[in-house]
Amino acid sequence: MNLEELLKHKQATQNLSRRDAMKLMGISPIAAGVLASTAGSSIADASADVSGKIVIAGGGAGAIMALSRLSRAIKNPDITIIAPNETHLYQPGQVFVGAGEMQFEDLVLDNNNYIDQEKVTWIKDEVSHFDAQHDLVVTRDGKMVKYDILLVATGIEYHYEAIEGLTKEDIGTNGITSVYLNDLEKGTAHGATATWEWFNELKETAKEKQPKVIYTLPNTPIKCGGAPQKMLYLSADYLKQEGLSAEYSFVSSQAKLFSLPAIDKALHEVQSQYDTITNKFQHHLKAIDVKAKKATFVHAWDETVTDEDFGTEEVVSHADKIELEYDFIHVVPPMSPVKAVMHSDLISKAGWLDVDKHTLQHKKYKNVFGIGDVCGIPMGKTGGSARHHGPIITQNIIDVMQSKEPSEHFDGYTVCPIKTEYGKIIMAEFNYKGPAPTMPLAFEKPRWFWWAFDLYMLKPMYQYLMLTGRF
Q1: pTM for this prediction
Q2: Which of 303, 340, 403, 419 sits most deeply, having the most CB atoms within 10 A of its CB?
Q3: Domains assigned to the chain
Q4: How far is CA 169 from CA 65, 100, 176, 291, 469, in A?
């Protein structure tokens, strides 16, 4: 009986406690070590006696994790979740589908298994308008829903249309792909399956010539910031295993490969094993000529100019355009919160949910909280961060319902499992202060056991522990 079968059996027969999970995961010291690590904060007492209506907007990982925790933490909860999607996609698996290691069917979960409609009101719709001044949200169908506490868990929206000449329909055609593309409401992950086809088209082309391949990173915050490089290294290794190569360009809006110096250095070393990678930093994709296979990038940078006569310095901004030809291109689109959040007064000047980076409480509306990708905090647009958000917002929501100040604080934890080749991952874990590795090992080193953990163990943990609020 494998790990997933063991967990399924335990979940079907009785509640799966953290201690039980650790026993089951005793077959894996990796999983046990990760599970034994702190989840960020203490979970609120399961008998919290508070009253008030909680509305959760969203149906992704953050929303379901929060729903599970709040339902268990409050004695007689009054919770409404507004989410159109019955299908729940295991989004961390999209990269593995794109690399041929998982199938689309492996990603599909059912929100009905996590939303108990005998205890929770489920409005199968989405919020079209947030009116925080009147403690009100309005759904797409015009239903008005009042709340005492609002949890915004609406996630992130992809803007392929912001790239001139590109539409979502172009993904999977003319050498263009994007592992990100999915539709949670319809339960599809077209981008991931199209990327695996793209890998194989790339391989066939490389048998005849050395193709030009571009991987992009936009000038907005994105979900899972390491994904563009994951696709670069996995596709390069896929060809390398066949004795093939391509002319790779990683074209990034950032100034370096990674924000942490140790990881940045390690990734440059990773690139050295693929001898044809060129980095173009501080470039973002502006337009694509789909038929001509040409991509236009804006190169933007700042220069500090010193006036020696007056002893002053001035920062001068520059921007120019370059055009690159390609045979294949992996596109990561600009990203933002959904329109309903963007058009509300809940956002910051930067355009994200304006919450405190430690308490996840809205800076203006104290009965509003955020979880997951929508939050305008310095880091954390990963499922690993959302898991750590869960106990923080659970306790802080209960604190506010008890007329107290939020007592729990998020430390900024996030995690980026960077696939450097088939069978190896750099597990980059860090927080607001810097590196925060789970295991007492050099966290910048690619390791096979992180690959095993990510590919084989993370999904059952996500499915049976994270989404149920037990981890």
Answers
A1: 0.89
A2: 419
A3: 1-36+436-471 (no CATH), 42-158+337-435 (3.50.50.60), 160-335 (3.50.50.100)
A4: 32, 22, 10, 14, 37
